[in-house]
Input
Amino acid sequence: MATIKDIAKLSGFSIGTVSRVINNRADVSPATREIIERVIREQNFQPNTNAKRLKQTMFSPVTIIVKGIGNTFLEAVLEEIQINMYLHGESINVTFLDERANCVAEAVKIIAAQNPKGLIFLGGSINNFRKDFKAVQVPSVLATGNASMLGYDNLSSFTTDDYRAAADAVEHLVQAGHRRIGILGGYPESWPEDIGALRLSGAVNALESGHADFVKDRDYEPCAFSLQGGYNAARNLLRRTPDLTALFAIGDLVAVGALKGLQDNGYRVPQDISVIGFDGIPFASYTNPRLATIKQDISLLAKRTVEDLLLRMNYQRPVLHETIPYYFVEGESIAVRHSSV
Amino acid sequence: MATIKDIAKLSGFSIGTVSRVINNRADVSPATREIIERVIREQNFQPNTNAKRLKQTMFSPVTIIVKGIGNTFLEAVLEEIQINMYLHGESINVTFLDERANCVAEAVKIIAAQNPKGLIFLGGSINNFRKDFKAVQVPSVLATGNASMLGYDNLSSFTTDDYRAAADAVEHLVQAGHRRIGILGGYPESWPEDIGALRLSGAVNALESGHADFVKDRDYEPCAFSLQGGYNAARNLLRRTPDLTALFAIGDLVAVGALKGLQDNGYRVPQDISVIGFDGIPFASYTNPRLATIKQDISLLAKRTVEDLLLRMNYQRPVLHETIPYYFVEGESIAVRHSSV
DNA sequence: ACTGATCATGAAAACGCTATCATAAAATTA
DNA sequence: TAATTTTATGATAGCGTTTTCATGATCAGT
Output
C-alpha cells in the first residue's frame, strides 16, 4: 500500500503539498496538482483513514444496532430510519447482533471499534441496558422500548404502548362477540422480553378483567417469533383447546404463520376462528384473508428517532421518552360472533 | 475523553505499562495491573481505535453493501450470510445504499471510510462495476450476479442462473397446459437490471420459442419490485389482456402482491388464473394459496459467498464464479389446464 | 557476597496523516 | 527600484497508540 510519503517522493513534492492536493486545498499551483494527481492515480493511492481520523478526531456515521435479523417489523423500521437519515444527509451503518448476544455489551465494543457519532438500538431488551450502558458515551436512542425508568442522560426512547395496544387488540375481539380467545406468544429468548411480556400481560389482563373466559395455561401458547413458530403454535393450541373462537398473535409474523397453520389444518378464517395480529408489517395487508392487526406507526417512530438523535448529536439537549400512537387496522380475519354463550 | 497519557499520569506509571495492561500482556506485576485497571475504570477510558489501527494496520470487519433495503429476498440472503460469518467468528457490518446510488462508487467511499477486510455486494447491478471497480483493492464478492465477464481479479461472484431458471418457470406453466401466459416484471430503476433483464429475457424467449402464444407488448407488465407493484400490475395486465390463464412474476414479492391483487379483483387463484414466482422468500410458503416458485438456494449462496471471501482474505487465491442450483417449489397457485386450444 | 539471568518498568520511535508555521519566490504597489 | 503583499511550498509538531530497546531492581546459584 502506497502512503502519502511515497507519493511525495515519486512526485518530487513534500507530503504537505500532497496532503493539500488530497484535500482539495486551494493553495496549490495547477501544474503541481496535476503531477501529484497523476502519481496518486498511478499508485492507486487511498489515504489511510485511521491516520486521518486519528489526527482529526473524526467520527463514523450513526450506527444502528439491530438484534434479531429476519424480524420483518424491525426491518421495516430500519428502512424508514434509513430514509429519514438519508433525507438529513446522514449515512448509516448497521450491525446485526446475534440473538444471543448481550446487546449493550456488544454495542460498547462496536462503539470502541468504530467511534460512531450516534447509536440506535433496534430490538434489544431493556434488561440488557441496566448494567452496561453507563460506558456508552454517545447520543443514543432505543427505538423499540421504554427506557425512561433507567434514567440515563444519553439514551432517549420511543415506543408504542405495547401493554395498552395489546389490551386493545383483544378488546376488538371481545367487541366482535368472542368470549373464548387464545393468545399466541413469543419465547423470551427469541423476542425482546420486555415488549413480548408487555403485550402478553396487556392481553391477559384485558381478558381476565373483561367478559372473556381466559385461563392462561389452557389458552396461551408460547412460540418462536417467526412464521414457522406461529404456524405450529396455532395448530398446537387448537388441538389442546378446540373451543377457541379467536386468536391474538403477539406479532404479525406469528399471525401470518398462524393463518396458514389454521388453514392447513382445516380451519376457515374467519368463519371458524378469527385472528388479530400486532405490528402492521407490509405483508399483513397481502394475506388471504387480509389480517386485522394493531399497526404501529412505523414511519413516525423512525422519524422521531432520527430527529431526536440528530438534535442531540448537534446540541446539548435532554433525552426524550415518547409513546408513539398505534392504530387498529380492520381486516377480513375477524368475524363477528353473535353471543350464543 | 481520557487518553492513555491521562491514565499513565493518574496511575503514576508510564504509558508503556498502561498499554501493557490494556492489552493483557503478561509482564506486568499484579499490584501495578490492579492500580491501572482501577484508574481505567474510574476514568471510563476506551482506547482510541483509530490510533490502535494506525499502529497495527488493522482492518474493519467485512462490510456488506446492500442496494435495495426492503427487498425480502436480499434480507434472507443477508441473514444467512450473517449466520455463516458468525460461525466463522467474523462480525459483519452492513451499509444500505439508496436505490439510486452507484453501488461501486459508494463502495469506494466506504472503503476509504472504514477500511474493511472484505466486501460483499448484495443486489447491485453488474453495470455498476464496469467503471469504478478498479479502485477497490479489497477481496470482494458479488453475491447476486455473474461477474465473470468483467475479469477483475478480486471480485468473485455467485448467482443463480436467472435466465435458465426463468425459462424453467414458464416451462412449468406450459407443462400444466397453459398457452396464454403473462409476465409481471420489474422496472430497471428499482431492481438490479441485469438480474431482472435476465429473468425477463429467459421467460420471454422460452415462451416465444415454445408452444405459447406470447406478444410482449400485450402480455408483459413492468412494475416496481414490491408487493404494491405486483398488486397493481396484476390488475392492470388482466384488465388489458383478460384471456391470460397464468402469470409469471419476476420475483416473489411481486407474486405475493399479484396474488392479492387478483383475489381483490374477483379472480380465483388458481382456478381462474395460475401464478408462479421467483426467489423462494419465506413468505411464499405462507400465502393462501401457497405460491409455486423457483427457489434459489439461499443458504448455499450465502455459504459459498462467505467461504470464498474468507479464503481469499487469508490466502492468495484466484476469484471464483459459480452458479448456484435452484429448485422448483410446488404450490397450490398453479392449476392444470386441459388443452382446450 | 558476586555473577548472571529474570522481571518490571520507562523512554522513545514509529504508524500515516493534517495543520501550523516559516520561508522563498513571485506579484503587486508606491 | 524598494517595500509590501500574495502565493506556493517545505519542514515539523503532533494525534493516541504499540512496541522495541534500555535500564534498574530482584532473584537464583555458586
Observations:
- The first helix of chain B runs from residue 4 to 11.
- Residues 13-17, 20, 27-29, 32, 51, 53-57 of chain B lie near DNA strand C (CB under 10 Å from a C1').
- The first strand of chain B starts at residue 62 and ends at 67.
- Chain B touches chain A through 50 residues (CB under 8 Å).
